[in-house]
Design a protein that fits this description.
With 1275 residues, this protein is α+β, with helices and mostly antiparallel strands. The protein has 30 helices and 30 strands. The relative contact order is 0.05.
Length: 1275
């Protein structure tokens, strides 16, 4: 019963059954959704309690994970503390080393002696060493340690060692209050984690004294520490019925849309067998296009997969193009569209190739030129389409593929690289398919190099005519020439020269990679050029109106901040941190402008500030903004007669009582572009000047009325260069111009913009150095490495899908050996040079910092020697003002001076000596030490040394976070050059190694194939060669061996026949004697009786006649046995795959000059035959074609009804008309050498397996044989 049911769901019916079940599921899903919505409405009061409880439980669980992690680290520190403070250890050396392990990198660890003195710490200090007592929370209980910019999850506990209690304070960040717009911000936020994980907007009050929300729309619960005590409150909006129902409907819609897509997909699979039966390639392709368009449209309508995937792949910020009505509105949508285009392209290429190789197609030679011209235009349009797409990938994306010299890109960049490669691959297959169509207008078997060169000339001519006719061809003529060259060489290699292979797709991928990367570099260069124009316009746009708008927005945001008023009343408020926090949220930070914020009390005394690149005076209170009007005031530099900065001041009042003032400042000038006054860890990545190129690479010159008055960069133009700029022809409409300027023998691309303001003429020139060859090489290989990984993955997928064992051939082993021997030294040398450059870079930084420390030490010594009453703090401030070098001074482990003390006050840094520096200087007695430190994710180098001033020892520290170190050439730039050069060297090595491996292995491969052919019975194999030396002797010896084998085979066959005949003669003689003796005796008796006139003669005659006839029958039987012995050996009939035998036979001729192609749509062709004789027949037929000087042999296998038809077609010199009827006769041959048995044996073999062999046609243009095989079990 089950078998009968299963039978009904076999074949295509199973797909339609699935479609039926999917449709049923659609109906059921609609009913279930409606039922679930009604149930939700009816039970909402209970459900909302369950949802809130589940959410509360999940958030608490996440929080407890953080607590447990902190407690585990505390246990580890306690264990290290006990081990480090054993009686034999007199110092805290080992303790200091152990807590600065990398495993504690995300934790702040401070260990205090019983008297409260800090004895060990790591790089992060969260708890003020002077604020241990009184304890903020009971010992051993977790609590929140908060300041204005960061909240930590912390715990203070004790460890009892040798009758003493040591205090351990350990903490880890849980919530950042300040977020800087750059890549160095850690963005730590437990609140954001809750939003991302549970999609609920939560608020967390990190205070043990906080209260639950009184808003009825919100639900609040307590955060409990490890002892069950309240340390904070979490509040979130309660789930609403409408939102929950909307979520149910959205989820149901998603499920139903997926079901519809699956139904359409299975409908396509169900129709696949009928689709395969369609003979017309054109009709099949049209149906495939219609099906793909419908499926892609439905996917777009259902917003799949963007609806199901969140993250960078579905984020249109990374890429969104207006092309194709939104079908490429995000990276994942782009990939989905490319996927369908790729399917159509692959099928188009396969169909056109099959049509080209079909020997039965009609050839219309007279339309060849017309087709070549028309399709060449389409080829140009496809190339332009590739260019437009790559241009969109560059211009419509926020991803900058070459801006940073890093080798490992982020995930969105990898995804867009895959999209770019696949689209170019699809377009390349379309072009190759069009070339197939063009060549189909002539006889493909007769295509020569002359025909192909003629086609190449037509394509180049028409493409360049189309290029110059086009309004916007997008690419350069050279790029068009190279793209066509790559594609035409590719086509010649995979279609005309080589046989069909799935591995050819890898070659197409490789060429597509080269084309796409070249276009990417081209359009990225254009984008960089456009950025010069953008920078110039932004410089001119940044006027008083824009700066006033920034100040207005900043001040209004401050006024609307509900916490500002309460902060003015706090006794211990950190106004520096508050000012920094407000500044970080302002548009001034986003644009990296010189700016700042100050807090004043009601007496106009500064409470706190954060200023960067600007120093305001005390005249700001002359214009105070009141009410809603914000007054922005410019402050002039009287010496330079320019605006120094802008400011705005507001009053902060509580119930009419003045609490204080807040002022905001901003400034813009060319010299401050690129955040020149900013420490790197505060630079914004949202600035308009930093989006395409690194603004520090730009050189900017500004002229006013023909006089140079502002320069940005390290190049000052000469008189001739100024003259070139001032005499440049400016466009009458846009008032701009492009220039080529040489600075110090280096070529620069420059954009000039002319503008007028206050009756003055301004010229703004923005220039960037043209990229060097090594940088372009780096760009190419940076992307090519990613593409190579994709190509390797594609190769592995092909191997897995084909389930073939990978056997290394002699050529592969040789090539692998060459590559290993050649590349390993190159890689080792590259690694050595990279490490050497890195070490040199560190040494250069060390020297620079050491040199600056020398200047500071000398200045301080000179001041203190000259002015005996001057204290070290005053001397340090003077040294900073005079030298412009930022530094810090320490006595023991405490900082007594810092040029950038504001960052200590804010809380971004701390005032304790770096623990590693303390370890090496104090315990290991180093005189100087350099180490890496971190602010958030920004790493910088810090240099420490002992200095002796006025009989006191200090530790001087200089770092490159605040001192811009300009090295001769950066490590990254050197690595770029090294990577580019060595990558190019590796490619050259691969090419040369491949050529050498081919040359060395080719004779061996030919010999291997020839030996294989001999082993299979083909003794007509000869190897033609031009080798010398040992290889010549080897190949000549093989040819001589085959000749001897053939001769010996004939002699052995003759001897065997002679021996067989002799043995047979003996046997026959013996067998014949037996019946002849009674015949002789009977006849003699008959003769005697006749002579004697015996009366019994008649009876005797009858008796003798019977005897003679019987003996004659015996002789006849002997003759039949002899005849049977003389026949061919019997056939060994078995089930075999015709295609497998045919492929194996063709592989034996792979090194012949003749191109042999098998064309079939069949996966297998099972027949009953003798595999050995079938292979010998194929060898003879192919060998006959080769000896007839055929350049192309086409083998085509078709199935018609219950028979397989094998057509063997060549373009040899054919068979003369008079000899056509004799070719199947024994001993007939047209060759000088040969026995004339090949075709006659083939005829006899085909007859024996109930098949046929016929000569369909033969002329001077070639011959065609048709072999007909009955399908197994069809007889």
């Amino acid at each position: 019963m089950l078998k009968k049911i299963a039978e009904k769901f076999k074949g295509d019916r199973k797909y339609f059954s699935i479609v039926f079940f999917i449709l049923m599921m659609l109906i059921v899903s609609g009913i279930v959704t409606e039922y679930y919505i009604n149930k939700t409405k009816d039970n909402w009061s209970d459900l909302v309690v369950e949802k809130i409880s589940a959410l509360e439980s999940s958030i608490k669980k996440d929080f407890n994970i953080k607590q447990n992690n902190l407690l585990r680290k505390l246990d580890v520190v306690k264990k290290d503390l006990r081990a480090s403070l054993e009686p034999e250890n007199e110092t805290y050396k080992e303790l200091l080393r152990s807590i600065n392990n990398r495993s504690f990198e995300d934790f702040s660890i401070e260990i205090f002696a019983p008297n409260g003195k800090l004895i060990a710490w790591n790089n992060r200090i969260a708890l003020n060493p002077d604020a241990l007592f009184p304890l903020s929370f009971p010992l051993g209980e977790i609590y929140f340690l908060s300041n204005d910019i960061l909240t930590n999850l912390a715990i203070i506990d004790t460890a009892h060692i040798q009758s003493d209690d040591f205090f351990i304070a350990i903490s880890t960040p849980i919530e950042e209050q300040v977020k800087i717009n750059n890549q160095f911000s850690k963005n730590i936020s437990f609140t954001q984690d809750i939003l991302n994980k549970y999609e609920v907007d939560a608020e967390i009050d990190y205070s043990a004294y906080s209260e639950k929300s009184k808003d009825g729309r919100k639900y609040s619960f307590e955060l409990l520490n490890n002892n069950g005590n309240k340390i904070g409150i979490v509040s979130f909006v309660k789930p609403s019925l409408n939102n929950t129902i909307n979520v149910i409907k959205e989820d149901s819609t998603k499920i139903q849309s997926l079901l519809v897509l699956f139904a359409l997909l299975f409908v396509g699979l169900g129709l696949m067998s009928d689709f395969k039966k369609i003979r017309s390639y054109l009709f099949k392709f049209i149906l495939l296009v219609i099906y793909s368009v419908i499926l892609r449209a439905l996917i777009f309508i259902f917003d799949f997969p963007s609806n199901f995937i969140s993250g960078p792949l579905s984020n249109p910020v990374y890429f969104s193009s207006p092309f194709a009505w939104g079908f490429v509105k995000s990276p994942i949508e782009f990939f989905t569209t490319i996927f369908f285009v790729l399917i159509l392209s692959v099928q188009f290429f396969r169909y056109t190739r099959s049509y080209l190789l079909n020997s039965e197609r009609k050839v219309h030679r007279k339309y060849f030129i017309v087709a070549a011209i028309g399709l060449s235009v389409i080829i140009f349009l496809i190339i332009r389409g590739i260019s437009a797409t790559i241009r969109s990938i560059v211009f419509d994306s926020t991803i900058r593929y070459f801006k940073e010299p890093n080798l490992i890109p982020d995930f969105p960049s990898i995804a867009m690289n895959l999209n770019m490669l696949l689209f170019t691959f699809a377009a390349a297959l379309l072009i190759l398919g069009l070339l197939n169509i063009i060549l189909s207008f002539i006889n493909s078997s007769k295509v020569t190099i002359k025909h192909y060169l003629f086609l190449v000339a037509i394509i180049y001519l028409i493409s360049f005519i189309s290029y110059f006719v086009s309004n916007d061809p997008l690419i350069t003529p050279l790029m068009l020439f190279l793209i066509l060259l790559f594609l035409l060489l590719l086509y010649y290699q995979i279609i005309i020269r080589e046989q069909n292979s799935v591995y050819h797709y890898l070659i197409v991928l490789l060429v597509s990679s080269v084309i796409s990367i070249s276009l990417l570099i081209l359009f990225n260069t254009k984008l960089e050029k456009e950025s010069l124009k953008t920078t110039s316009w932004e410089i001119n746009r940044t006027d008083s109106n824009l700066l006033s708008f920034m100040l207005d927005e900043t001040i209004r945001n401050i006024k609307n901040d509900k916490n500002i008023l309460s902060q003015f009343g706090e006794r211990f408020a950190n106004y520096n941190a508050i000012a920094f926090k407000l500044w970080a949220q302002s548009p001034m930070q986003r644009e990296s402008l010189n700016s700042g914020i100050q807090f004043y009390n009601s007496k106009r005394q500064i409470l706190g500030e954060y200023l960067i690149g600007i120093q305001p005076d005390n005249s700001i209170f002359n214009n105070i903004s009141k009410d809603d009007e914000i007054i922005v005031v410019p402050v002039f530099d009287k010496q330079k007669d320019v605006i120094d900065y802008y400011y705005a001041v507001i009053e902060i009042k509580e119930r009419g009582i003045l609490r204080g003032y807040i002022a905001a400042f901003v400034d813009f000038n060319i010299k401050s572009i690129g955040a020149i006054n900013y420490p790197t860890f505060l630079e914004s990545n949202l600035s308009v000047f930093n989006k395409v190129v690194d603004v520090k690479q730009l050189k900017i010159f500004q002229f006013k009325d023909g006089i140079l008055n502002n320069v940005y960069g390290d190049i000052y133009p000469s008189r001739d260069q100024v003259k070139q700029i001032l005499n440049a022809e400016v466009d009458s409409v846009f008032n701009d111009s492009w220039l080529k300027i040489n600075f110090n023998s280096e070529k620069y691309e420059a954009y000039l913009l002319k503008s007028e303001e206050d009756d003055s003429e301004f010229l703004t020139v923005v220039a960037i150095q043209e990229s060097a060859f090594s940088w372009d090489l780096f760009k190419f290989f940076k992307i090519f490495i990613i593409h190579s990984l994709f190509i390797i993955i594609a190769f592995l997928l092909i191997v897995i899908l084909r389930v073939r064992r990978i056997n290394l051939t002699f050529k592969a082993k040789l090539l692998l050996s060459f590559l290993i021997i050649s590349i390993i030294p190159v890689v080792v040398l590259a690694i050595y040079n990279t490490n050497l450059v890195t070490e040199r870079g560190k040494e250069e930084i060390l020297n620079e910092l050491s040199q600056r420390a020398d200047y500071v030490e000398k200045n301080l010594g000179a001041q203190l020697n000259k002015f005996n009453n001057r204290d070290i703090i005053t001397a340090s401030q003077n040294a900073f003002n005079e030298l412009g070098i930022s530094f810090a001074l320490y006595t023991s482990t405490d900082q007594i001076y810092n040029s950038n003390d504001i960052y200590n006050k804010i809380g971004l840094m701390h005032s304790k000596l770096n623990p590693k520096a303390y370890y090496f200087l104090n315990y290991l007695k180093y005189q100087e030490f350099i180490t890496s430190e971190k602010v958030n994710n920004y790493k910088f180098d810090s240099y420490f040394r002992f200095i002796h001033l006025k009989d006191k020892d200090y530790i001087l520290s200089v770092n490159d976070a605040f001192n811009k170190i300009r090295v001769t050439i950066s490590t990254n730039e050197i690595n770029v050059v090294i990577f580019g050069i060595y990558s190019f060297a590796v490619i050259i090595i691969i090419i040369i190694s491949t050529i050498f491996a081919n040359q060395i292995s080719q004779p061996i491969q030919r010999l291997t194939k020839a030996t294989d052919a001999v082993s299979k019975g083909d003794l007509n194999v000869t190897i033609e060669h031009n080798e010398r030396g040992e290889l010549k002797d080897l190949l000549d010896g093989f040819n001589q061996m085959t000749s001897e084998l053939k001769k010996n085979q004939a002699e052995i066959a003759e001897m065997e026949r002679e021996a067989a005949w002799k043995e047979m003669a003996k046997q026959v003689a013996h067998e014949i004697k037996n019946p002849l003796t009674p015949m002789k005796l009977a006849l003699q008796q008959l003769i005697i009786s006749y002579k004697d006139k015996s009366k019994d003669f008649d009876k005797l005659f009858e008796k003798v006649s019977t005897t003679v006839l019987n003996q004659i029958e015996n002789l006849n039987h002997i003759a039949s046995e002899f005849s049977h012995f003389a026949k061919m050996p019997s056939l060994k009939i078995e089930e075999i795959d015709l295609l497998s035998v045919l492929n194996d036979t063709v592989n034996m001729f792979v090194h012949e000059k003749t191109k042999i192609t098998i064309n079939t749509d069949l996966k297998s062709a099972i027949i009953d035959a003798d595999v050995g004789q079938l292979r010998r027949m194929f060898i003879n037929l192919i060998r006959n074609s080769i000896q007839a000087e055929a350049a192309i042999i086409l083998l085509e296998v078709l199935q018609r009804e219950n028979k397989y038809f094998l057509t063997i077609k060549d373009n040899g010199k054919g068979i003369p008309e008079l000899q056509k009827e004799k070719i199947f006769e024994e001993n007939f041959t047209t060759k000088k050498h040969g026995m004339g048995l090949g075709l006659s044996l083939a005829k006899r073999f085909m007859s024996n397996i109930n098949g046929e062999i016929n000569l369909k046609e033969s002329s001077t243009e070639g011959s065609t044989f048709e072999l007909i095989f009955p399908i197994k079990n069809s007889l």
